[in-house]
Amino acid sequence: MIFPFLKKMAFVLFASLIVIIFILMKYVDKLRNKRFYELLKQFPSYPKLPLFGNYLMARVSPKDRMRTMENIMRPHRRLLFWLGPFPVIVLKKYDDIIAILNQSQDRDQFLNLGDEWLGTGIINANYDEWKKSRKILAPAFSSIMLSRYVDVFNKKASLLADSFEATADSGEVFNIRETLVKTNLDIIIENTIGVPIDSLGEEGKQFADAVPQALYNIGKRMTRPWLYPSFIHKMYLKLTGKENIIQQYRNLPAKIVKDALNNHKNQKDLEENDISSKSIISLIVKGGLQEPTFTETRMTDELIQIIIGGSETSELNVGYTLLMLAMHQDIQQKVYEEVCELFKNNESLTADHLLHQLKYLEQCIKETTRKYSHATITVRRTHKECILGDNTIIPANITVVPLLHLANQDPELYKNPEKWDPEHFSDDAVENRPKGSFMSFGSGPRSCLGGRYAIMSIKTQIAYVIRKYHLSTNIKELTRDNLSIFLSIGSKIGYPIIFTRRMP
Fold first, then answer.
1. CA–CA separation, 378 and 395 (whole Å)
2. Residue of 96, 416, 439, 441 with fewest CB within 10 Å of its CB?
């Protein structure tokens, strides 16, 4: 009987020793970083557990995550959380967020939890590496390059509209999510590499199937703190077989980069009529070869991040905007009249149409990105003290999480923010809001490079669909229970639409 007792005592003593060591380390840390902890006292702190801090909050299910965070943050503009021993400051007001995004450009390691799937590129690189990525990719979104993408926008949008013919006039509710996923992946791939995904054979199919898995697994790891340590996560990927999926998923982008490098060496991509000279991959290769630290793997990572970021953003916004138009018949009619007026003298849309016309449709799209954000948070790591508007100081060497979707719901900025209303983006409304307060494409130096590209692609798809069909739906409103949230706000019910052909 004495041995079980001794084993229990040994365990208790060992656990006690661990706790004592942790407390001593924490005490020494506070003595060595006195100013850091003094500055933290400015921020109200969410109740935490010993050792674990607020880690258990990460286990909140996606359907409850939005409501939980909104309820927690409602009485606070700033709040301090603890991931174990590590402090995290969460911000929700636009002026605080603008201040931190302007003063701190380095992403936190939290966003690197998707490295196995995404690699290192413009989405998650540290500031110095991000500057190299931006220099290489910025020309891809210049006015000249944007005009080159329009042919693909028109072609794919027309095919998208045609794909709804089978259910038109049947009264059947059709969930268009999968169709939009395929369409928007196809658009970004053809504009990125110069050929449609269907021409890429089995590797193209494997990549298309793996993209949703990549997004799901990145989000899954972020909600499971025990998978944060790299060596544990690598073991998990190996044991679950996902290591093989990642390899298959990277095969196609790696092959595309290798072929582009060979073409560049042979000068084929410099020929005026060569389609690769009009694609993003040629810019990645040409720019990457001028950066000594840009390896073939890094070019592959940039390609993957462009494809994933571009396809998911457009899919979400096209889906939500079409669903909102189906729910708001008066607004749909105004969009239809605007689209018809433009198509009256044009067979297809041009870059000028997409950049400077269809203004009311653009209001609808921006309102959708405000209400159903494709980017709910960003994460920064401060390397120096940052001063907020009321002279509150955020200490150096801390993780800061701006909640972009809550800034987009701020009643000080948007009258009746719970309502989907394109008038939130009328000229007068925009003029009366502080510059940079619209957060859907970020703010500050690291704001999204592809914002104009995304708006053009989304406009084209909606214009072709609205021109051809009247939309309705059996959904009266999207409630919190219909939504899931982490890095983006997803619809649990998809985008259920009823299509009726319009009379010529």
1. 18
2. 416
